[in-house]
Amino acid sequence: MFFLTTGEIKSEELYGYVRFVGKVREYQKAGLNLETAITRALNDCINEEILADFLKAHSSEVINMLTAEWDINVAKKVWWEEAREEKNLETVIRMKNKGFADDVIADVTELPIERIREIHS
């Protein structure tokens, strides 16, 4: 394991992250599976007051995020949905600028009318 001081890293959060990741790697090298290594590193960091507030509030999200398998098909679906949403927002703005009624815009973009009303041109 490597040791760093906060003087070597200017951001306390970055220092905490480096320490957390270092602990995970250390536990994996010792033979623990990824989820157990993350959980143990998380508990160690909380006990050592490293990112403690964040880790206490978001421990399950941290574990889920770091143990989730990346799936290209899921990623493509998310990218497609984000691109579609962006295109819809651009369409809403153009239609609002041309004076189309919110209900017509909702019909064309298939967005909820409440969402249309939130978007300002």
The count of DSSP E runs of length 2 or more, i.e. the number of strands, is: 0
Number of domains: 2
Strand content: under 5%
Average residue-wise pLDDT: 87
Question: Helical region count?
Answer: 6
End-to-end distance = 54 Å
Rg over CA atoms, rounded to whole Å, is 23 Å
Low-confidence stretches: none
> Roughly how much helix do the residues carry, as a percent range?
over 70%
- Shape descriptor reads elongated
The sequence of SSEs as H and E is HHHHHH
Characterization of this structure:
There is one protein chain. The chain has helices spanning 12-29, 34-47, 52-67, 72-97, 102-109, 113-118. It has 121 residues and is mainly alpha-helical. The chain has 2 domains: 12-67, no CATH class; 72-118, no CATH class. The longest helix is centred in the last third of the chain and has 26 residues, at 72-97. The model has no long low-confidence stretch (mean pLDDT 87).
